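Please annotate the following for my students:
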Amino acid sequence: MPAAARTENLKRLLKPRHIAFIGGAALADPIRSCESAGFGGDIWVVNPNREAVAGRRCYRSVADLPEAPDASFVAVNRQQSIAVVRELAARGAGGAVAYAAGFAEIGAEGAALQRELVAAAGDLALIGPNCYGLLNYFDGVALWADQHGGRPLERGVAVISQSGNISLNLTMAGRSVPLGYVISVGNQAALGVGDYLEALVEDPRISAIGLYIEGLKDIAGFSRAAARALEKNIPIVALKVGTSEIGAQVALSHTSSLAGSDQLYDALFARLGILRVGSISGLLETLKLLAVVGPLAGPRLCVFTCSGGESALIADLAEPAGLELAPFAPAQAEDLRRQMTVFTTIANPFDYNTAVWGDQPALERCFTTAMRSGFDAAALMIDYPDVAGCDPAGWDISVDGFIAAHQATGCPAVVASTLPELLPKSARERLLANGLAPLQGISDTVAALGAAADYARRRRDLLADGAAALILPEPGLG
């Protein structure tokens, strides 16, 4: 873990008062991105050969800036990056994104240059090199080398990724995940995943943290930060790649991280209460559920479908995920029986078929009856039509009835599509506005619900002896 001064500088970098962009014409897009996102601080540009970039006057050097910038985006070649980082450190800057590649990821020559870069940085908080950079959608900060999605928000999740392109893709995904921070860490020359975790868990706007990792360099530091997250009830969801021999070789050549034994990572994640997923879609859906609904109090799930096929799929997936599809209490079952036709089977999952389809008061009454007690969460499975000329009114009525039942009962609730593409943005946004999680894809939905249900139990058990008991010792000290 870095010195205290670098830790404080990382906080400045993550939530800056002013930003310096250092480089040439390629800076125009990130500058405009900060402007359009509503960054309220000062933006300065450093270029000794230009009068202006993106309509902003250029300072000739870091030394000429009005004051030491909290955050800087350094978009020059690798040799120049070392000199610029040295100037920033001498000026007392907070931190910088080193965008350039050609360091440790290419071998011995690059590794030597990376050591020079780290020495030049000193206590400067350095992201990268060989990375896309930092996005902070809470505060309108885009220290980023390319286009990106996302939008301003007040509360959401953070993602730390060792892949720049995957970081970029996550911001573009049509999943309505409330992304607050996205950090592409690159080679982790000066800061590791644990350092970012340590800073992010202290931000009250963050509800969960996602990791895309190829390998970890500082296990002890990572464990300290993860234990702190567990203590603060901020779930961590990890997608760890490099599990195959070829994958491990790719990881090493990509960001100079050694992937290591997959079984050891399994043990590490279990020790620290980290929820492991196996796909990018699983990472996004689990983060979305945790951000919107939060960890569940237990595994008892009530499911509504309008298809026997969906009911069978859910039933098959639920048990391996640790979820309980408990039957309705006798009074609930009798009430539901009175509401439905004689052809309706009263069971969980509950296939309400066409008996009440399109009748919002009847749907609301049915959902409310089932959700009123006995369950830790409820899920409505529904796939919207995606064909021109189809009328989605019937589907909207079901969703609106479910929203009303959630509001009446307070039962944590999700609406999920069997196929990921069949939950349109309009429905997702309406659900989010009413505190329900819109989940996409039946397998990822069930896995996410299982993880959210298991987290509270695991956290309670792991913290029984205090967070300090979870922290692994530094090498040679244990």
Notes: Confidence is low (pLDDT under 50) at residues 246-259. The longest strand covers residues 206-213.
